[in-house]
Amino acid sequence: MKTRRNFITKLGSLTALFALSSTRIVTGTERTATSFDSEVGNGKFIHVVFFWLVNDHKETTTRFLGELRKFIDNVDLIKTKHIGSPADTNREVIDSTYSYSLILSFDSEKEQELYQEHHLHKAFIENASSLWEKVLVYDSLEI
What we know:
Layout: H1 2-21, H2 33-39, E1 45-53, H3 58-72, E2 80-84, E3 100-106, H4 109-117, H5 119-128, E4 132-141
Antiparallel strand pairs: 1-3, 1-4, 2-3
């Protein structure tokens, strides 16, 4: 009985070893050429913008938010939208120095490029750029 148990244990270990040796371990940063090629330009595109307003006066924030909503509520290319202000969280890795954030999603990078040239986007920049002192943008493709 003991010999049979040892044999089964060794057989199981060998099977696992062969299975692992033939398995490719993929990290989060690796992508096959096929999956990468099929996703570029076709994945969901996320556009994140942080605004630091010149001041926090009620007139400034009201005008900024009005211009922002007038713009994003009327651009059909935008699939989802979120306007936010810093959460009351306090951890070393959090930057809460910004005034407002804007998170938009698009079906593709191409749609985001069209959005960049949209007349309402350009009008927002022209009408509201005097209200902010700094803007940071982070764009990403869904993987």
